[in-house]
Write a structure and sequence with these properties.
17% strand, 8-stranded mixed β-sheet, Rossmann fold
């Protein structure tokens, strides 16, 4: 299966074509990777290839990651996290990834034989926050959304980053406002459209991430006209990362990640062919 790499409106991507769908335009599934391993678009494509999904899987590179690492150094991002875990690192990264998506989508449709139907989204960890930001801003029609160990409340992600930096976070009025913007449990009421949503939660994920994920599912089911369209699956033995460190290059699938890949493949097949 030939993998295509390139850029779309300045956003690096790794694209994997569908198999067995003919020569015409095919549906599009767009993904955003984690900041943990796998932390690049190419590594994420290897971790979750979803080979049986009858759609193009286009894995977008996140800002400050992979080809867009600050000064080409992984530790440059850590320096930003030490400066301000939320305002200098997490929030700008998530906002930029969501803001640049509409132009990237136009460019992808010019470069690849994909259809013009609503797109499907997949985000893991902070990439999950990006997918939810795209969904709640409602600038792009969305067919289905899948999340894996998502950061649905950015406050919980701030706590994880401060564990890495060893610095307690000092909250300000500005940072509280940014955290509110990226709290998708609180923002569940902003949704006026409710595409099918799957949340995959690792049994060994960070406890606060699992708590937030359950709260998001409850909030969406309360508002969704079809609550059964909001699904949650817990994967045994799955921690937060989906690959071994350093997570920069494609690597063999871990057993628990293979289970996630199979779950996503079945779910997207059902949503795209049903």
């Amino acid at each position: 299966m030939e993998t295509i790499t390139g850029t779309a409106a300045g956003v690096p991507f790794t694209a994997v074509p569908p198999v067995g769908v003919g020569d015409g335009p095919a549906p599009l599934v767009v993904t955003w990777h984690m900041l943990d391993a796998p932390r690049t678009d190419a590594a994420f494509a290897a971790a979750l290839p979803m080979a049986g999904v009858p759609a193009w899987r286009v894995h977008l590179g996140m800002p400050m990651c992979g080809a867009r690492m600050v000064d080409g150094r992984v530790d440059a991002a850590l320096e930003l996290a030490r400066e301000d875990a939320l305002l200098a690192f997490l929030a700008p990264l998530a906002r930029q990834a969501a803001d640049e998506f509409p132009a990237a989508l136009v460019a992808l449709r010019e470069q690849l034989p994909v259809d013009d139907e609503p797109v499907s989204l997949l985000g893991a960890s902070l990439g999950g926050a990006v997918a939810l930001q795209v969904l709640t801003t409602q600038r792009i029609p969305v067919r289905a959304v899948a999340l894996v160990n998502p950061a649905v409340r950015i406050r919980s992600a701030v706590e994880r980053v401060t564990d890495l930096t060893g610095q307690a976070y000092r909250w300000t009025e500005e940072s509280r406002e940014a955290a509110d913007e990226l709290d998708f449990v609180a923002r569940a009421g902003d949704l006026t459209s409710h595409p099918p949503l799957l949340l995959v939660s690792g049994e060994l994920d960070h406890p606060e991430f699992r708590t937030d994920a359950a709260a998001l599912v409850d909030a969406l089911r309360e508002r969704c006209p079809y609550p059964e369209e909001v699904e949650v699956i817990t994967v045994p033995d799955l921690a937060h990362p989906l690959a071994d460190e350093p997570g920069l290059e494609p690597a063999p699938q871990l057993p628990a990640t293979r289970a996630v890949d199979e779950i996503l493949t079945r779910w997207f097949r059902r949503r795209l062919t049903g």
